[in-house]
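Before relying on records like the one below, remember that each one covers exactly one chain. Contacts with other chains, cofactors or solvent are not represented anywhere in the record.
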Amino acid sequence: MKRLGLVILAVALCVVAARPAMAQNIRWGLAAGLLMPTSDYGNADKMGFTGGVGGTYNLPGGVGIRADLSYGTTSEKSGITPHTTKILGGMASVVYAFSHSGPKPYVTGGLGLSNVKISAGGTSASQSKVAFAFGAGLSLPMGTGGTRLFVETRYTSVSTSVATKFLPIVVGLSFGK
């Protein structure tokens, strides 16, 4: 229930921040989707869910600087040692859009910090480590108000003792210029 309250608060902040952002070179957005574990993480956990909020400051020439926060959760797939994995992270990225109007394909890459918490049988352990990500997306206009629908994926790796690598696939809305 506490997480639901945080998600509602994040969505409300994005909506409130979107109106002033329309007059600036900033786009705010929120997204949700699937989190697909890969490598050793994928051998232990099944597909889960992810969501996030973020903002991009657009520079001339299709380049943007983006900061975002994300949360994801997965669970153990074999049933032998039941556990859940929760990932909370922040990322600073560079974004390059290939067009200025209409559908905008883009690429992104960045560095951040993520906390990976594994809970099993009433105990838990967590690590906060450096993360990197690179990926691509497509942003589509939704009318004349500046709202855009986007689809994105970013290969992400967190430098935990057992490398936590995953591929979030998200759909979201962004507001602003």
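The longest helix spans residues 2-21.
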